[in-house]
Amino acid sequence: MEYLKAIFTLNVAANDEQAAKDLLADLAAAAGFEAFEESEEGLTGYVQPHLLDKETLDEAIANFPIVSARIEYEMEEAENRNWNEEWEANGFEPICIENKCVIYDARHYSPEDLPANMSLQVAIEPRQAFGTGTHETTRMVVQQLLNLQLAGKHLLDCGCGTGILGIVAAKLGAESVLGYDIDEWSVDNSLHNATLNGVENMVVVKGDATALNAEKKYFDVVVANINRNILLADLPLWVEKTTPKGTIVLSGFYQTDTPILVEAAKTLGLALTSQKELDGWACLTFGKQ
Ligand SMILES: C[S@@+](CC[C@H](N)C(=O)[O-])C[C@H]1O[C@@H](n2cnc3c(N)ncnc32)[C@H](O)[C@@H]1O
To answer: Is 3.40.630.30 the CATH number for 136-288?
Structure first.
């Protein structure tokens, strides 16, 4: 796989540098960047060409309050690498959500190591894919799923990453799950994690929202944790594929973008039913009329 490389330049006082780097890494993640490295050239970010959301990045940088940052868009190809390699080798700490659900790395923990009071255990082995619950956006969507009645429902998981959201839904009783992701590794990893959790009613396909044009089925619940511009572009199709009175949960964007998403949803006939924010990230739940 090929990566584009971008050099970021931060103009901040030395004692603000770490906070600025953390914030910039978050902003760039929202624009599709997978990894940051400190190199001799500076702070270097890598993104798969088709996942770069340049508009989100430009806008975030323009609104960056404490620092001016410059990105050189003369990007180079970078070698194929597994950015998560080191992190995957060490695993991630179990993550508890709402005292109900624990997400754990099955390569490093076994069910007996987990807190006893969690009614839902979800094993995830991330391989080159996003979605462990360590990120605020994933956690907020899982929280929403825990509060929905999913028994017997059909769920669509857009940009499924590790498959975590579909797997949680299936374990909460969803009758079927269709996941899709533009990234092949994510498709493979979702299928692997579904098997790991004994989930048999989850289908995962490679592609973007256009794959839904051929889909005959309608969904009671649609979840999408991607980024603002993809959410805005694909929302009309998701609404079309949602049953009347169905639910759409969106995350992957900053709370400052909430008004734009709420407005877009309203024009498509959706009503906002719940709103969450965590460390600057947002999650919105809508009901179809
Ligand atoms: C932020 S991750 C979310 C993963 C997981 N659903 C979660 O909530 O943790 C976004 C995922 O969307 C995928 N993606 C990005 N653009 C996409 C698009 N246009 N259509 C489908 N998937 C896309 C990425 O490959 C990535 O796996």
So the answer is: no
